[in-house]
Amino acid sequence: MGANGSMLFSVVRIALEELVAHKGRSLLTMLGIVVGVAAVIAMVSLGQGAQQQVQQQIASMGTNMLIVSAGSQNSGGLRSGAGTSTTLTLDDVRALLREDPAVRSASPSVSAAVTLVYGNQNWTTRAEGVDITYPDIRNRGVSAGDFFTDADVSSAARVVVIGQTVANQLFQGADPVGQTIRVRNLPFRVAGVLEAKGQTQYGQDQDDTLLMPYTTAMKKMLSITYIPTAYISAASADATNTAQQQISDTLRSRHNIRQGQPDDFNVRNLTDVANTAEATTRVMTLLLGGIAAVSLLVGGIGIMNIMLVSVTERTREIGIRMAVGARMRHVQYQFLIESVVLGLAGGVGGILVGVLTSFLLSVFCGWPQLISPVAVVGSALFSMAIGVFFGYYPAKKAANLDPIEALRFE
Among 315, 375, 352, 297, which Cα is nearest to 48's? Predict the structure, then answer.
């Protein structure tokens, strides 16, 4: 090892020995960095966890889905809301499938509150009449039994597929497939049980539901010939906006709506909803991370403060070292190394505390969390950069001391 290498090794050793000699002060200085890094990692973890949860919940609502609702109709100066008028028909849905290339599949939706009875058990839920394309559009499979068939839809059969909550309430652990339940006092055969989905972000139980052929709901439950809502699946995620425009154009043409007149229907694009929700959570993540990063700045200021105090305390020592041959850059390296070690050690400690905090918040508070490798690596590099940035001025000040004046310092 050359003279320069030996000298540099000696400088590193002296810097580490100085930090160890003042353990209490070094630990308290690192604490600011530990808190800052831990806060950044925990906040970003929670923000990204929430963002992922929103994405999953939006995705669980359906594949490339649009919702077409009857409504927005002016009558005597009064404008009706979505699903409240009779302007949407089965022929409209068939026309969308036939005429709009961006539409892959569609399912009418007719719903009503119903009371279910099985033996001495009863349960009130929401029944929804849909087509056989519903499971594909809404990403809902069956965990037991089968979904109803096209023949069931054609014949308006009395057959249902029930959610897990309904199965638990009525059958209490028994196998519901093949059993007969009463829906509004009409007997229905249970063909299958839907896969459990849990609650939405708004607290709605997605498993408290019952599905039947839309023809059955229209003829035997509600006695209607129109449909309030239709679920539409676009050909791809990129085609949702195109599908939305095509649906609007087709329905305006079929309903003889002239230019300038308001639509008598609504088309909601869930991709827009997902993008808005994702943008909101992303902004919140950046905001939380930015607020937590202030702690890192405070920790860096703490490092500079301690290093300046250290320079003052060791002025005479610096003078002696420079008098016996130490160069300015060696003195500067010593203080810079001390500062970087404080920052890096605080960063490593902050990573451990941040990951542990994220885990504990997830376990005890039920908050979603997703540890971000970018946040972890970025925090470690940033803490080291803070050591360099806030340690440079004290190191430079120490290196620029006049050896003679330093030796006179008491």
Answer: 375
